[in-house]
Amino acid sequence: MKVLAVELYLRLFDSYSLKDKRSVVKSILAKMHQRYNVSIAEVAEQDMLNQAVIGLAVVNSSSLLCRQIVDKIIEEIEANYPVEIYQINEIE
């Protein structure tokens, strides 16, 4: 069993209130959980208007498959949401 945990640091565009931010973040969390069956949550910077930190964990039989799932999630977030991922930290 392989586990890959990652923190994604996001910069949100067009976020003028916490309500705007939470709308985007909740959409990301719900869609990525539903589509990829990963554990995902906002873990820091909850009160910042244009920044968010999302933690996600993938469990699979292969570390290569874990890495591919995380890469797909990153690509999908950047392609479909008004955000920029400016830092990615792997958690040991």
UniProtKB/TrEMBL annotation:
TM region(s), chain numbering: none
Family matches, as Pfam families: DUF503
Coiled coil: none
Protein name: Ylxp-like protein
